[in-house]
Design a protein that fits this description.
By secondary structure, the protein is α+β, with helices and mostly antiparallel strands. It has 3 helices and 8 strands.
């Protein structure tokens, strides 16, 4: 089923708000110790998370959105059984060394697979304008 413009705008606005919120997950690049020797493949987040979880019973996959500049991209991370989050996919953009991530279930009840791979999440959802602070665009 195709998404309506209204559905896309609702997702865009929810993501913009979530990425602006202090409760947005901020995941640093994992250390080798945290990865426990696991080697993830670039651009293969779903497969990487599934392989990790198969090797670590009790851990689970979390579908959501990773922020990169003015877009949100579908991404899958791991929630450890101790409730910590871990991104096991290398090569993900991390402005300022941190991946901004919003779990999909926190912003939409619509199935994750019905959304496009990326969505523009600029200020006000559509205009491509970022707030300017001290003469520079301010990113989340």
């Amino acid at each position: 089923m195709a998404l309506s413009q209204s559905d896309m705008n609702a997702l865009r606005e929810a993501l913009h708000k979530a990425f602006s919120d202090v409760d947005c997950l901020r995941l640093p690049e994992p250390t080798q110790e945290e990865l426990e020797g696991f080697v993830g493949l670039p651009a293969s987040c779903r497969n990487n998370a599934a392989r990790w979880c198969a090797a670590h019973p009790g851990d689970g996959e979390i579908e959501g959105w990773a922020k990169d500049s003015c877009q949100a991209a579908k991404h899958v991370i791991v929630k450890r059984k101790d409730k910590r989050y871990l991104d096991v996919t290398p090569g993900i953009s991390r402005p300022n060394g941190t991946l901004l991530f919003v779990p999909h279930h926190e912003i939409s009840t619509r199935p994750f697979e019905t959304y496009p791979e990326t969505i523009n999440v600029t200020e006000h959802g559509l205009d491509g304008i970022w707030p300017v602070i001290d003469g520079k665009p301010e990113f989340f």
